[in-house]
Design brief:
- The chain is built from 14 helices and 16 strands.
- With 377 residues, the chain is of the alpha/beta class.
- It folds into 2 domains: 271 residues, TIM Barrel; 91 residues, no CATH class.
- The strands form 4 sheets. An 8-stranded parallel barrel has the order 4-5-6-10-11-12-13-14, surrounded by 4 helices.
- Helix 13 runs antiparallel to helix 14.
- The mean pLDDT is 95.
- It catalyses: 7-aminomethyl-7-carbaguanine + guanosine(34) in tRNA = 7-aminomethyl-7-carbaguanosine(34) in tRNA + guanine.
Length: 377
C-alpha cells in the first residue's frame, strides 16, 4: 500500500504499491477521459515521458464503448495496452457537470446521455460495477460534487448522502472483488471528502471517512468556482484530518502553481486537463511561464519550446515549426504541444519528489513560482 518515505514540513514523499506497479508520490495522473489522451498521444508515448498513472472516466466509458465491452476485451489495461496503474473516477463529477441532464435521489442519479440523450441510471453499486468491469487499479467512490458556494443546507444534505453512498461503494466493491469473473480482484477504493468551502463540514466528513480505513482519500469539490485562496484554505483545514499514512488526492487540480501549493499542504495525487487542453490550443508550459506558440513572434524562432527541456519534442523541433503546424491545423502540432506539456508536468513532479527528499522543498517552490510569474515571452 502506501509508504511514507520522508516529509519536508507537511510535504510528503511516498510510494504507493499497487497490483500494476509502484506509484512514486507526489504524482500527476495524465487524464485519458475516453481511454486516450486527447491530442493523438499513445500509451507508448506516455511511457516515454515517464507517466506513472493514467486516469480514465467511468461515465464516458460506460456510454461508449460500454464497460461490458471493455471487460470482454480484458479490461482497460489490455484494451489500451497500458500496463501501469490506472485510476477511474466514479462518474460523480458528471452529477455536477451535467446538472441540466440529471436527477439526484438517494438511490443514485438518472442522467440523460450527452451523446444520444438516452436515460442512464448510476448509483454507488452501478459505479462500482462499471469500474470493476473496467478493471482499473484504483476506483473512486461515487459521490456528489456540490457547487462550492451552494447553501449550507444543501451541502449538509449532499455530504451526508455522499457518506451513505461511500458505505454502499465499499460493500459493493468487496462483493465484486470476491466474484469469480472479476478481472482485478485487488481493485482499491478511494473515498472522497466533500463540503464546499465550509470548514466544519469538510473536517467532520474527513473524520468520518477516515474511520473506514480505505486505501486512499481524495478531496473533491474544489476548482469549481471558488478562488485559489479559498481552495488553499480548504486544504489547510482538511488535510490534517485525513490519514498521513494514506495517499491524499486533490481531484481536478490544477496549474503548476496549484500543485506546488497543494504539495506543501500534504497532497500526494493530482490530475487535471490543463496540460492537454491548453496544449491543443498552443498554450505551452515552461519554467519561465506559459507561452502561446501561435503568437507571430515565434514565426522565425528556431529555439525549442524550452531550452531546458529534454522532452521528445524539444530535442528535435523548433517553435517556428510547431507554430506552423498549429496554424495549418495539422494534428501533429497538437500532438507535439500535448506531449511537451505532459512531459513538463511529469518532470515537475519528479523535481518535487527530489526536493522533498533533500529537504529543500520550500526554496524549490519559491524559485519555481518566481519563474512561472515571468509569463509569456
Amino acid at each position: 500500500m502506501y509508504k511514507l518515505i520522508t516529509k519536508d514540513g507537511k510535504a510528503k514523499r511516498g510510494v504507493f504499491s499497487t497490483p500494476h506497479g509502484d506509484i512514486q508520490t507526489p504524482v500527476f495522473m495524465n487524464v485519458g477521459t475516453a481511454a486516450a489522451i486527447k491530442g493523438a498521444v499513445a500509451t507508448s508515448d506516455l511511457e516515454d515521458i515517464d507517466t506513472q498513472v493514467m486516469l480514465c472516466n467511468t461515465y464516458h466509458l460506460h456510454v461508449r464503448p460500454g464497460d461490458e465491452i471493455v471487460k470482454q476485451l480484458g479490461g482497460l489495461h489490455e484494451f489500451t495496452n497500458w500496463k501501469r496503474p490506472i485510476l477511474t473516477d466514479s462518474g460523480g463529477f458528471q452529477v455536477y457537470s451535467l446538472a441540466k441532464l440529471r436527477n439526484i435521489k438517494e438511490e443514485g442519479v438518472t442522467f440523460n446521455s450527452h451523446v444520444d440523450g438516452r436515460k442512464i441510471f448510476m448509483g454507488p453499486e452501478e459505479s462500482m460495477t462499471i469500474q470493476s468491469n473496467l478493471a482499473s487499479t484504483i476506483a473512486m467512490a461515487f459521490d456528489e460534487c456540490p457547487p462550492a458556494k451552494a447553501e449550507r443546507s444543501y451541502i449538509e444534505k449532499s455530504v451526508a448522502r455522499t457518506y451513505r453512498w461511500l458505505i454502499r461503494c465499499r460493500d459493493k466493491m468487496n462483493e465484486l472483488n470476491s466474484m469469480e469473473g472479476t478481472i482485478n480482484k485487488e481493485q482499491m477504493l478511494f473515498g472522497i471528502n466533500q463540503g464546499g468551502v465550509l470548514d466544519d463540514i469538510r473536517i467532520d466528513h474527513a473524520k468520518m471517512i477516515t474511520e473506514l480505513d480505505l486505501p486512499g482519500y481524495a478531496i473533491g469539490g474544489l476548482a469549481v468556482g471558488e478562488s485559489h485562496e479559498e481552495m488553499y484554505h480548504v486544504l489547510d483545514v482538511t488535510v490534517p484530518y485525513l490519514p498521513e499514512d494514506k495517499p491524499t488526492y486533490l481531484m481536478g487540480v490544477g496549474t503548476p502553481a496549484n500543485i506546488l501549493e497543494a504539495v506543501e499542504r500534504g497532497v500526494d495525487f493530482f490530475d487535471c486537463v490543463y496540460p492537454t487542453r491548453n496544449g491543443r490550443h498552443g498554450q505551452l508550459y515552461t519554467n519561465q511561464g506559459k507561452i502561446n506558440i501561435k503568437n507571430k513572434k515565434y514565426e522565425l524562432d528556431t529555439r525549442p519550446i524550452a531550452e531546458d527541456c529534454d522532452c521528445p519534442v524539444c530535442k528535435k523541433y523548433t517553435r517556428a515549426y510547431i507554430r506552423h503546424l498549429l496554424k495549418a491545423d495539422e494534428m501533429l502540432g497538437m500532438r507535439f504541444c500535448v506531449l511537451h506539456n505532459l512531459h513538463f508536468y511529469n518532470k515537475l513532479m519528479k523535481e518535487i519528489r527530489i526536493a522533498i527528499e533533500e529537504h529543500r522543498f520550500k526554496a524549490f517552490k519559491s524559485a519555481k513560482l518566481r519563474g512561472f510569474e515571468e509569463g509569456d515571452r
